[in-house]
Structure prediction request, 218 residues.
Amino acid sequence: MKRAAKKSSERKRPDAPADDAAGGLRRGYLDGQILIAMPVMQDERFARSVIYICAHSSEGAMGIIVNQPAGNLDFPQLLAQLDIVDDARKIKLSQQAAILKVLKGGPVEPGRGFVLHSSDFFIEDSTLPIDDGISLTATLDILKAIAQGTGPRRAILALGYAGWAPGQLESEIQDNGWLHCPADPELIFGADIGKKYEQALKKIGIDLAMLSNEAGHA
Prediction:
């Protein structure tokens, strides 16, 4: 995770096009929406994945997988690895820090951390507002705040992210690789990670058992 809180072009949100009257999406851009992998997804890295799209524009897309745990790694262990706290101080961590979920955010830059969090926390030049109530911060400062109990009310920490080249995500959706639906806090921050896939499908009225290979996007 980068320590610097300087302005960076990668933190700039793509220009937000006008709303599309037909579906409420910004000219088909899905930032702030949830992607749901179709059961026929061939790439094992994304099988049954639920992805929150943080940025989407003509330049490509970036998102965080919110339903893949990062093995046995927990947040206190990560804080110790990053020298934010030492082992002796683990018992002094805030309650939120002790239970914060550490997830596999995607295959790109898996050694880098990204915190998706409620918008009650903001670091100037470091926090990217994505949608109403949801922001993204990728500096060590937010981890320190969470450890001290002064961080956002709700958060998940993801290692790595999912990325798409210009036009790639659109093509995958047209090929029935993905469904999409509006995001909500429970899909992002909910504690029952294993049920997020079914919950996301139910949100758009789809029963997993009835989902066919022919299903289009939501």
Notes: The mean pLDDT is 82. Helices lie at 75-81, 95-99, 140-148, 168-174, 185-189, 196-203.
